[in-house]
Design a protein that fits this description.
Distance between the termini of chain A: 32 Å
Largest interface: A-B, 26 and 30 residues
Number of domains of chain B: 1
Helix content of chain B: 25-40%
Oligomer: heterodimer
Structural class of chain A: mainly alpha
Order of helices and strands of chain B: EEEHEHEHHHEHEEEHH
Largest sheet of chain B: 6 strands, mixed
Helix content of chain A: over 70%
CATH topology of chain B: Rossmann fold
Radius of gyration of chain A: 21 Å
Radius of gyration of chain B: 17 Å
Number of helices of chain A: 10
Number of strands of chain A: 2
Number of domains of chain A: 2
CATH superfamily of chain B: P-loop containing nucleotide triphosphate hydrolases
Largest sheet of chain A: 2 strands, antiparallel
Strand order of the largest sheet of chain B: 5-6-7-3-8-9
Number of strands of chain B: 9
């Protein structure tokens, strides 16, 4: 555990600079928007844009970051350090995934704090439409957890693509792109293939989970988990495969 | 099977990169407690051989046994490797680099660190990115020598280093090496005044072994120093 935490700490420390930069940019953007709105330069709708913009940009940046965190190890030759460590590959991969999760959490937190700081009246208005503060917090937390799961799946695919590309001597970029496409297709097919095995699972009542009836009566939304289970098992298998390949087959640049 | 005092056995080791065959069937058997010099010009396969041993590249054929075991996580724990490249995290301080490395090895001897830092003239609060090449080479050596690793692999530790750092490194190796417990391979293309370090030498050229033997025997047999022999072989 100590070793895993050290790897995690290393990955977090390495991303401190970009994380601080993005947090700063987000807050500056919000402050600037607030200033422009208060001086009458921009309409009130600009506030939504400055809140939504970081949220749209965040997944794209984290996707890039999941690729970049591995690429930097090779580019700066620190992979020589990483590959000689007597640790299982899953610890290296999981530490990088967890670091991305933490970055996601921090940047979401900064966006939330910025929203409360600079657009408090708008938040108050929104709260009047929503059933309660507890309802908003609860659903926000659920959406955050779903975001974590989706982010994990994307990061795991990127890690596999990168690791496979490092196992070939040439056309590494092309190999990475094709690995991404093929592994995505395979996992999706696996979900369809294994769906009959999970038909016994009850549908997840999203309207109850998100307490949508408190918003408006009569909304019914259910999530059929049966096809998702195979897909998630496939993603888990990809994480295991990537870790194994990283530990046993991946090479430093020749 | 290896006998107990054989640290490293390499049999018919082959490695091919897309444009070059780096190793063309290397055979080596290395006993415990010695310092071996892996000598050869640039591109002779020295680094590839060390990378194969430590697990940074995978051979296309042949066997490697380290203390009688195939390469694994277990054998990684027994090897202290100093690569030729700058493998340190540049944003770390020297202290952070030491703490990071020490976490992963049970044979780490923290009590040796202050002495090594003082000997190598390094300030632990300094950032790796602010160090000169010579200082970074010294730090890499500290990270290897602070361990009681049974097998030390040093890849070109003197490459591009100023004479002062070079002397420090040589002296550091001599002072810290424990022949009753450790075995060391040093690869270099500049033999010079480092030849006194080596118990035995292996001359590598274009992926094959040209000449191999105990340094003293070779000096006696050819009537010249290892450095002169090196110049003659690779002239």
């Amino acid at each position: 555990m100590k070793r895993f935490l050290r790897l995690l700490r290393k990955d977090l420390q390495a991303s401190l600079l970009p994380m601080g930069f993005l947090s700063g940019i987000t807050l500056i953007l919000m402050f600037f928007t607030r200033f422009k709105i208060s001086t009458g330069g921009w309409p009130i709708e600009a506030a939504f844009a400055s809140i939504v913009m970081p949220l749209v940009f965040l997944p794209l940046w984290l996707l890039w970051q999941s690729f970049q965190t591995l690429r930097t190890e090779w580019r700066e030759d620190t992979v020589y350090t990483l590959l000689v460590l007597p640790v299982p590959g899953w610890q290296v991969m999981l530490a990088k995934l967890l670091a991305i999760w933490i970055e996601y959490t921090v940047l979401l937190g900064v966006t939330a704090i910025g929203t409360l700081l600079f657009f408090a009246p708008l938040v108050q208005e929104a709260m009047e439409i929503l059933p309660s503060v507890v309802w908003a917090l609860r659903n926000g937390l659920l959406l955050y957890l779903i975001g974590l799961a989706l982010l994990a799946s994307v990061v795991i695919f990127v890690q596999l693509a990168f690791v496979i590309s490092k196992m070939v001597g040439r056309v590494q970029g092309l190999v990475a792109i094709w690995t991404l496409i093929l592994s995505g297709w395979l996992v999706e097919k696996l979900g369809v293939l294994l769906e009959p095995l999970f038909r016994w699972m009850p549908k997840l009542p999203l309207h109850k989970l998100f307490r949508l009836d408190e918003l408006r009566q009569g909304i019914v939304a259910e999530w059929n988990l049966a096809p998702e289970m195979g897909t998630w098992l496939g993603i888990l298998a990809i994480l295991v495969l990537t870790s194994y390949l990283f530990e046993h087959y991946v090479e430093v640049n020749g | 099977m290896t006998t107990t005092n054989q640290v490293l056995v390499v049999r018919n080791l082959r490695k091919k990169y897309p444009k070059v065959e780096a190793l063309k069937g290397i055979d080596l058997t290395m006993p415990q407690g010695e310092i071996w010099g892996l000598l050869g010009p640039n591109g002779s396969g020295k680094s590839t051989l060390l990378k194969c041993i430590v697990g940074l590249v995978n051979p296309d054929g042949g066997d490697i046994e380290i203390f009688g075991h195939s390469r694994s996580r277990h054998t990684k724990a027994q090897i202290a490797f100093v690569p030729e490249v700058e493998n340190l995290y540049r944003w770390m301080t020297i202290r952070q680099a030491i703490d990071f490395t020490s976490t992963f090895y049970d044979d780490w001897e923290e009590e040796r660190v202050p002495g090594l830092l003082a000997f190598m003239g390094l300030d632990p609060s300094k950032k790796v990115s602010s160090l000169s090449k010579g200082m970074r080479a010294r730090l890499k050596l500290i990270l290897a020598l602070a361990r009681k690793a049974p097998l030390l692999l040093l890849d070109e530790p003197f490459s591009g280093i100023d004479p002062a750092s070079r002397d420090r490194i040589v002296e550091g190796i001599v002072r810290q090496f424990k022949s009753e417990e450790q075995t060391m391979i040093i690869s270099t293309h500049a033999v010079g005044d480092t030849e006194q370090l080596f118990d035995a030498v292996v001359f590598l050229d274009e992926g094959t072994i040209n000449l191999q033997g105990y340094a003293e025997d070779l000096r006696h047999q050819y009537g010249k120093s290892i450095n002169d022999l090196f110049k003659e072989v690779f002239a």
